[in-house]
C-alpha cells in the first residue's frame, strides 16, 4: 500500500539525502571511524539504551554491570559505523576491493544445492546491509525482505542503495511473501534477517527464553526446491567484514508452523545466538526481542 507523502517526509528526506551526499565525500574508513565515534559518544546517553541493558540482563545474566556497559558501548560504536557506511556500501562490497572476505561460498554450488532456490538468513550483526549486496556481486542476486522506514521517501533512498548491485527489495508482509514465493519458483535467492521479534511467528528458544521468531525461513526452506543457508557477518575493522556461509539447515518438505518448524527455527536461533555470543557488541540489542512477561519477571527480581 502506497503511503501518503507529507511535508515532514519531504524535509526529513532532504536532510537524509544531504547527509548521504556529505558523508559520501569522505574516505570510506574515515567515515566508518567517525560514525563509530558519534555512536559511542551519543548513543549510551539516549533513553533507548535502557532496552539494550534489559536485553543483556535477560539474555546473559552472568554479565557484570561493567561488562554490560562495555557491550552497549561497542553496540553503539557498531551502529554508528553502519549508519556512516551507508553512502559507501556500493564501494565496500565491490569484488575488486579488499573490504570484504567471504568463506564457504562454494557451498552454494554443491551438486545437491545448485539447482535450488537459496534462502540466505542473516541477523543484525556487523553491517547486515553488506550481506545481500556482496552476494549479488558474486553471482547470487536476491529478493531481500526488509522493514521499510515510516518515511516513504527515506525508504526509497535506502532502497536505491540496497538494490544498486542487482537485488530486489520487498517490504515485510504480503508483498514480501509474494516476492519470496516468486523467487523460489524461479529458483532465485531470498535474503531474510531473522533475529527480531515476530508476533505471528514461531515460538522457539533464543538465549534459553521462548521468543516469537520469524517463520519465513522455516516455511520457505520447507519448499522442495529451496535450501536455507545462515550467513554470518563479522566486523573485522572500519568498513571491513568477513562473511561466513554456514552449512545448510534441513527443513522437512512441506512443513507448517508445527513441531518440525519449531525444531528448525530452534536450530537457527541457536546458530544466531552463537554469533552474538562471539561478538556481543556487534548485535543490535535495542529491540524488545522477548515476551513482555520475561521483562516483567526480570524487573520483579531486581
UniProtKB/TrEMBL annotation:
Q: What is its main location?
A: membrane
* Designated name of the protein: Lauroyl acyltransferase
What's a Gene Ontology MF term here?
acyltransferase activity
**The keyword Ribonucleoprotein is annotated on this UniProt entry:** no
One GO cellular component this record assigns the protein to is: plasma membrane
Q: Which domain of life is it from?
A: Bacteria
Q: Which InterPro entries match?
A: LipA_acyltrans
Q: Which UniProt keywords apply?
A: Acyltransferase, Cell inner membrane, Cell membrane, Membrane, Transferase
A Pfam match: Lip_A_acyltrans
The biological processes this protein is annotated with in GO are:
glycolipid biosynthetic process
Q: Where in the cell is it found?
A: Cell inner membrane
Amino acid at each position: 500500500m502506497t503511503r501518503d507523502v507529507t511535508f515532514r517526509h519531504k524535509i526529513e528526506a532532504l536532510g537524509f539525502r544531504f547527509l548521504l551526499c556529505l558523508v559520501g565525500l569522505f574516505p570510506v574508513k574515515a567515515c566508518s571511524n567517525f560514525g563509530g565515534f558519534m555512536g559511542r559518544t551519543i548513543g549510551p546517553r539516549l533513553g533507548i539504551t535502557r532496552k539494550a541493558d534489559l536485553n543483556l540482563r535477560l539474555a546473559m545474566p552472568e554479565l557484570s554491570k561493567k561488562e554490560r556497559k562495555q557491550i552497549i558501548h561497542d553496540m553503539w560504536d557498531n551502529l554508528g559505523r553502519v549508519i556512516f557506511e551507508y553512502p559507501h556500501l556500493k564501494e565496500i562490497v565491490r569484488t575488486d576491493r579488499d573490504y570484504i572476505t567471504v568463506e564457504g561460498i562454494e557451498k552454494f554450488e554443491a551438486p545437491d544445492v545448485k539447482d535450488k532456490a537459496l534462502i540466505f538468513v542473516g541477523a543484525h550483526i556487523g553491517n547486515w546491509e553488506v550481506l545481500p549486496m556482496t552476494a549479488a556481486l558474486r553471482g547470487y542476486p536476491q529478493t531481500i525482505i526488509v522493514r521499510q522506514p515510516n518515511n516513504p521517501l527515506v525508504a526509497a533512498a535506502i532502497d536505491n542503495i540496497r538494490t544498486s548491485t542487482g537485488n530486489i527489495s520487498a517490504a515485510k508482509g504480503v508483498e514480501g511473501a509474494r516476492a519470496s514465493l516468486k523467487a523460489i519458483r524461479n529458483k532465485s535467492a531470498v535474503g531474510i534477517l531473522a533475529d527480531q521479534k515476530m508476533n505471528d511467528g514461531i515460538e522457539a528458544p533464543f538465549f534459553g527464553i521462548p521468543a516469537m521468531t520469524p517463520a519465513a525461513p522455516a516455511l520457505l526452506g520447507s519448499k522442495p526446491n529451496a535450501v536455507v543457508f545462515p550467513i554470518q557477518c563479522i566486523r573485522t575493522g572500519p568498513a571491513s567484514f568477513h562473511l561466513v556461509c554456514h552449512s545448510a539447515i534441513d527443513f522437512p518438505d512441506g512443513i507448517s508452523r508445527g513441531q518440525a518448524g519449531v525444531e528448525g527455527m530452534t536450530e537457527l536461533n541457536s546458530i544466531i545466538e552463537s554469533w552474538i555470543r562471539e561478538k556481543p557488541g556487534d548485535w543490535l540489542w535495542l529491540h524488545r526481542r522477548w515476551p513482555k512477561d520475561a521483562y516483567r519477571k526480570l524487573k520483579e527480581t531486581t
